[in-house]
């Protein structure tokens, strides 16, 4: 069978590339080894948000007592929780299947035999002739020293979201976005949670003032947080795992039902014929591409996680779109940045562009402007307010250029896109002041911090 485009991988980059190519009138085949939707739909974005929504609902119910509304939560059925999560996954997966109705979808493992031939090993082995190939094979969970995945007690995110029931206790290794999100959701649902991070703060990718807020809220939720600490496998004890955690305060032995490792990913770029046909990889195993998502081999493209960080679904969406449009003849690709990132803890975090650490390392002369959530009318009306939250704008001193922004607080996941738009279109602070934001909304934190940066603050005193 001959196709204009053969896509390897049915995750965010792969299925968006396939759908875009179909819309451009191209004949498309997509090869997926397991489930359509990839990591995002099956074991990442969708199931984690379904779990977080339930955790937040419990947290909200518990908060109502302070306002004279008494609700009692007699129990959390830990198996029904994961059934809700599974329903969300199936719905997302079926949605992707529907979008690919006009493509030839083949279940199996695709490997490049040569630049124009993909060999598929599945229930029925076949070879596909391809004018162009888009590789979007994603990443795999990575383990840490002394631990080995057994799929039962030492697990990764894929194992976790395929459990029949939530555990009563869990230790999570890695306090990045995934570790923090799942920690808080589980704690709110009544699970005993221990979160271990080797760095000196949780969420290493954000500035300390942001991570400190989340650290405080995690502890309020009941999560036991260990920073500057290392976890070591110490054996199995009956149906539990014994973990030795060593940090600044010494060594602690912890027994839990499950250990979830959320400490990194490895690229699915080996054993699929990339190097054999001349596709170049960097020293970490990611595929090297240009702005058109083209590899060193002109008819082979790569998109999504395998092109390197950030490992985000919306980054993958954009790269799959660029690859397919380039094949269809588009000469000016859409930009690959700036890419916002959201962490769905309570409170939420949104950030885009440079943070203070990155700006400092780059030698940029910058200044920072903040607006506190405690002065935000909308947040004060919330049943679960986030008064420790804030919006932060990072501006280059000599040019006034917006370098980056961060929001930590209620609504941050949505508000950050106002800052992303501003950076994308290189708008100045004075231009941003022209925008009227509805009151009372969380989005007002955008106009408030912009007003402060312009030297004309409204709802906080002007600094002398």
* CATH architectural type of the largest domain: 3-Layer(bba) Sandwich
Low-confidence parts, pLDDT < 50 over ≥5 residues?
none
CATH superfamily of the largest domain: FAD/NAD(P)-binding domain
- Compute the number of helices: 14
CATH topology of the largest domain: FAD/NAD(P)-binding domain
- Calculate the mean pLDDT score and round it: 95
Number of domains: 3
Overall 3D shape: globular
Derived structural class: alpha/beta
Radius of gyration: 24 Å
CATH class of the largest domain: Alpha Beta
- Alpha-carbon distance between the two ends: 72 Å
Approximately how much helix is present in the residues?
25-40%
Largest sheet, described in full?
7 strands, mixed
User: Which strand-content bin applies to the residues?
Assistant: 25-35%
What are its keywords?
single chain; 464 residues; alpha/beta; FAD/NAD(P)-binding domain; Enolase-like, domain 1; seven-stranded mixed β-sheet; 14 helices; 22 strands; globular
Structure description:
The strands form 5 sheets. Strands 1, 2, 3, 4, 5, 6 and 17 form a 7-stranded mixed beta sheet that branches. α3 crosses α4 and α3 crosses α6. The relative contact order is 0.12. The chain has 14 helices and 22 strands. The chain starts with a strand and ends in an 11-residue tail after the last helix. It has 3 domains: 2-140 and 266-327, FAD/NAD(P)-binding domain; 154-263, 3-Layer(bba) Sandwich (FAD/NAD(P)-binding domain), CATH 3.50.50; 347-453, FAD/NAD-linked reductase, C-terminal dimerisation domain (Enolase-like, domain 1, 2-Layer Sandwich), CATH 3.30.390.30. It is globular. With 464 residues, it is of the alpha/beta class. It has helices at 12-23, 38-43, 45-63, 78-99, 157-160, 177-188, 208-221, 274-277, 313-327, 356-361, 377-380, 412-424, 429-432, 444-453; strands at 2-8, 28-32, 104-107, 109-114, 117-121, 126-135, 139-141, 154-155, 169-173, 192-196, 224-226, 230-237, 240-247, 250-256, 258-261, 265-267, 300-302, 341-343, 349-353, 366-372, 390-396, 402-408.
């Amino acid at each position: 069978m001959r196709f204009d485009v053969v896509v390897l991988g049915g995750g965010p980059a792969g299925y968006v590339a396939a759908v875009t190519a179909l819309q451009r009138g191209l004949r498309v085949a997509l090869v997926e080894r397991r489930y359509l939707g990839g990591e995002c739909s099956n074991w990442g974005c969708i199931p984690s948000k379904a779990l977080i929504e339930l955790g937040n609902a419990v947290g909200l119910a518990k908060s109502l007592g302070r306002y004279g509304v008494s609700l009692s939560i007699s129990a959390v059925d830990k198996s029904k929780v994961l059934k809700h999560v599974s329903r969300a996954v199936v719905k997302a997966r079926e949605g992707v299947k529907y979008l690919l109705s006009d493509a030839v979808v083949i279940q199996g493992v695709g490997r490049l035999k040569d630049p124009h031939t993909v060999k598929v090993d599945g229930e029925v082995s076949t070879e596909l002739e391809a004018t162009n190939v888009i590789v979007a094979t994603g990443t795999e969970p990575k383990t840490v020293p002394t631990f080995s995945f057994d799929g039962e007690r030492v697990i990764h995110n894929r194992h976790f979201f395929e459990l029949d029931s939530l555990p009563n206790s869990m230790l999570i290794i890695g306090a990045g976005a995934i570790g923090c999100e799942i920690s808080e959701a589980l704690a709110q649902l009544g699970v005993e949670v221990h979160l271990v991070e080797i760095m000196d703060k949780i969420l290493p990718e954000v500035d300390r003032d942001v991570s400190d807020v989340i650290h405080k809220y995690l502890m309020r939720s009941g999560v036991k947080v260990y920073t500057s600490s290392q976890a070591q496998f110490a054996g199995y004890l009956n149906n539990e795992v014994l973990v030795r955690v060593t940090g600044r305060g010494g060594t602690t032995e912890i027994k839990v039902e499950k250990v979830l490792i959320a400490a990194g990913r490895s690229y699915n770029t080996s054993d699929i014929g990339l190097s054999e046909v001349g596709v170049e990889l960097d020293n970490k195993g990611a595929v090297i591409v240009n702005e058109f998502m083209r590899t060193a081999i002109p008819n082979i493209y790569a998109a999504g996680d395998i092109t390197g960080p950030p490992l985000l679904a919306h980054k993958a969406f954009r790269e799959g779109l660029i690859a397919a449009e380039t094949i269809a003849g588009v000469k000016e690709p859409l930009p690959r940045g700036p890419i916002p990132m959201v962490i769905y803890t309570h409170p939420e975090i949104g950030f885009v562009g440079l943070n203070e650490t990155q700006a400092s390392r780059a030698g940029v002369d910058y200044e920072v402007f903040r607006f506190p959530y405690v002065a935000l009318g909308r947040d004060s009306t919330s049943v679960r307010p986030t008064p420790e939250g804030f919006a932060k704008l990072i501006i280059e001193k000599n040019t006034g250029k917006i370098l980056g922004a961060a929001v930590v607080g209620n609504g941050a996941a949505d508000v950050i896109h106002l800052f992303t738009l501003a950076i994308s279109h290189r708008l100045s602070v004075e231009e941003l002041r022209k925008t009227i934001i509805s009151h009372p909304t969380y989005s007002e934190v955008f106009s408030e911090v912009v007003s402060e940066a312009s030297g004309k603050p409204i709802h906080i005193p002007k600094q002398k």
